Amino acid sequence: MKALVAVVAAGMVSCSMLAFTPTSAIAVEQSASEKSSATKNKRVKRAQTMREQVFKRLEVARDLADKNQYAEALEELESLERMRRNSYEKAMTYNMVAYVHFNQEDYPGAIKAYEQLIAIDNIPESLEQNTLYSLAKLYLIGEDYKKALGPLNRWFGLVEKPSAEAYVLRAQIYFQLEQFKKALPDIKVAISEEKAKGKKPRENWLMLERAIYYQNRDFVSLARCLQDLATYYPKGQYWMQLSAVYSELGKPMKELSTLETAYDKGLLDKENQLISLVQALLSQEVPYKAARILSKGMKDGQIEDNARNLSMLGDAWMLAKEYDKAIVVMAKAAKASGKGDDYFKLAQIHTERQEWKQALTNVDNALKDNKVKNRDSVRTLKGLVLFNMDNLEAAEKVFVSLKKDRPEDRMAAQWLTYIQGEKQRRAYMAEVQ
User: Fold this and answer.
1) Which of UniProt's keywords are assigned here (predicted)?
2) Mean pLDDT lowest for which of 92-96, 150-154, 326-330, 405-409?
3) Residue 216 phi/psi, 5° resolution?
4) What element of type H or E holds 210?
5) What is the mean pLDDT of the chain?
6) What is the pTM of this model?
């Protein structure tokens, strides 16, 4: 499961990535809202007009704001409060107030103005839609996700065909509120709409979908999402995450094929990525290819030739029965680490080659390390080496010691029986001669 942590870490969509454009301060297209309302069989709101004097005052305020003269712009708008205005003119005044505050990055001020705007009755539906959408984004920027959801859901109730971006926005809000099951349908709608248009879904949309599947513990769907990410946006990290998901699903061959595909595409260039591939190859008993990849990575400077990696390379060459290469590498690993485990591996290779003297030297070095793993296995190997060096007395002492420490050790008992038989055979042969 630890290998999947990165899946969530990059799944968030930053609020700073959200496009934000304040509602136009002067013009509102009322015919579009009337058409939308008629389509939904709603009562068509009676259109109101803006008087020229109000229009000009709003234009002055906008020009001042665009020149960064915010205090003067707000003074101009405050003076409008003393005028008698219809609901449309009041709404456009609040809209301009929000515009001025937004340009100053005074988001609470902009929110307050928008809240006052949507509280007005009989405003054009298109203005209400734009304001609700902008209000939701402002709450999202301020990370007030619960409040963002209210105006956004009202907006969804007004528009005939919400955009894919709007579905993503609501999915993000649900995600932040940890309502992951509610977030899923919205992000799926947005992505499917893009695919239906023959377009590739945006990367951050797929990243959000990926994070939602992870939170829902739906690893089958997570794998499908990561396949999309790896296909549309071929990056090593997505292939690595996909392999981690296959590992979580208990599909080691798919895990391996995913890593191999990424490697063949030249997408794995970091040490941890290459080591993951090597470990997957070794787990599926493909040691020769694992060794080749490790060797190339070290030669190209992508993999550090430290004791740990050299030991892994030695293991790979040994499993591939490339003993000449294994000895060279494992000797370097043992010298670099000084660990008994590496000397033990080196002793095993020399034993395979029946190089008994070298095997004994390395097995003794292994036993000098009090932290060596499987110490009894190391002692057993020493007894075997001594026997093959025809030193029966020394070999017998090793197995007697093992049997004393571990009475249940059947191998030590078998060796002792064998050695006793060999000693008797030799004694008999000496008497006969």
Assistant:
1) Signal
2) 405-409
3) -85, 0
4) helix 203-215
5) 88
6) 0.76
Cβ neighbors of 190 (< 8 A, separation 6 or more) are 164, 165, 167, 168, 171, 201, 205
As a 3-state breakdown, the chain gives helix, strand, coil percent values, each rounded to 5, of 75, 0, 25
Helices 410-432 and 375-388 sit at what angle, rounded to 10 degrees? 10
Q: Exposed, middle or buried: residue 142 (CB in 10 Å: 0-12, 13-18, 19+)?
A: middle
Backbone angles phi, psi at 390, to 5 degrees: 70, 25
At residue 336's C-alpha, the angle toward residues 289 and 375, to 5°, is 85
Separation between Cα atoms, residue 365 and residue 344, nearest integer Å: 8
Measured distance between the N- and C-terminal CA atoms of the chain, rounded to whole angstroms: 69
Cα separation, 314 vs 333, whole angstroms = 8
Q: How many residues does the chain have?
A: 433
Chain position carrying tokens 């937004």 = 102
387 residue type, one letter? F
* 31-49 average pLDDT score: 47
Place of tokens 């208990």: 250
Q: Nearest 5°: CA angle at 33, between 110 and 164?
A: 70
User: Are residues 63 and 29 in contact, defined by beta-carbon separation less than 8 angstroms?
Assistant: no
Are the C-beta atoms of 412 and 406 separated by less than 8 Å? yes
Long-range contacts from 422-425, C-beta under 8 angstroms, 24+ separation: 422/392, 423/392
Q: Which amino acid is at 234?
A: P
Take residue 425 and report the two structure tokens written for it: 């055979």
What band does 4 get if pLDDT is binned at 50, 70 and 90? low
- Token couple for 346: 């080196």
Q: What is the mean pLDDT of residues 312-334?
A: 93
Domains and CATH numbers, the chain: 1-160 (1.25.40.10)
What pLDDT does residue 45 have?
53
Q: In angstroms, how far is CA 86 from the centroid of its own chain?
A: 54
The residue behind tokens 């699903």 is 249
